[in-house]
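Listing S7. Sequence submitted for prediction.
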Amino acid sequence: MKKSLSIALPKQGQKWFPRRMLFQRSMVAPFLPDKDRYNIVCHNTRYNKAEIDKTLGKGAVRFSIIRDPVNVFESYYKYYKIENRIRVNLTTFYEDPSHYFYLLLKSKSLDLPARNPMMYDFGLEVSDFDNRTVIEGKLKSIEKEFDLLMIAKHFDESMILLQQLLCCALNDVVGFKINSRFDNLKEIMNDSLKQKIREWNWADQLLYERFHRIFYTKVQRHGTSKMSKAVSQLQREREKYKARCVEGVRVRNIGEMAKTGVSAKILIYNGNSSDHECQLLLNPGALTWNHMSTIDRKE
């Protein structure tokens, strides 16, 4: 925002781009004429290269972040209250995942399928979830079209690689972990269940393994000693922002904030209300997008 870059936002009245279809330029609020290009698209959406090309300017850097498929699915199961929807817990779901998957799919009640949610967001269709040829082709396309896939488990290292890629200042990549669940609210899974999750979400597993290797190679090229020093510097910078911005924390249920059909008790920061930068840094995504949308409409 401080660099006056244009950001592609959902149309008025929508917090997010629709997830049941691939991204389209027509989903974007018309702050700019159709012939013009935005500087930033930064939302949960289903990747569609042709339509992203219509939205972003030439030479735009493309990056995303991925997580271990086991953690993704456990979070998904809790967030979308799957147990309440089909009356089975996570362990029972994996006794017959195909049956419950198609039960949920038939209900049309979810914007993300109960299988391979990461690859789905990268544009893989449900009908291709068992097509290895299509999946391998999609992985090659992602590697070709994206400059960086960050790894959530190695978030600080990811931020350093992103800083290098964007040629920006260190404080431009300082961030806090918001909307995160407490560990004691996460499912305890044994090795057998974890393996079943990996096998069922095998396209996501291929994605994670491939780009985890690529990520490791990028860290090695950066230099492990240099990376370690940069991460320490980033953590010190984050502590400075924490001292300046964070006045306390609280727990909140997502269901209290909106009737979304989802549920999770998450960590929320109480920020310094007199510091505009702090508010933007600590606000949940939806509030930040609303703020940006208001600015764009005024302009």
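Caption to Listing S7: primary sequence and predicted structure tokens for the chain studied. Residues 170 and 234 are 7 Å apart (CA to CA). Confidence is low (pLDDT under 50) at residues 256-260.
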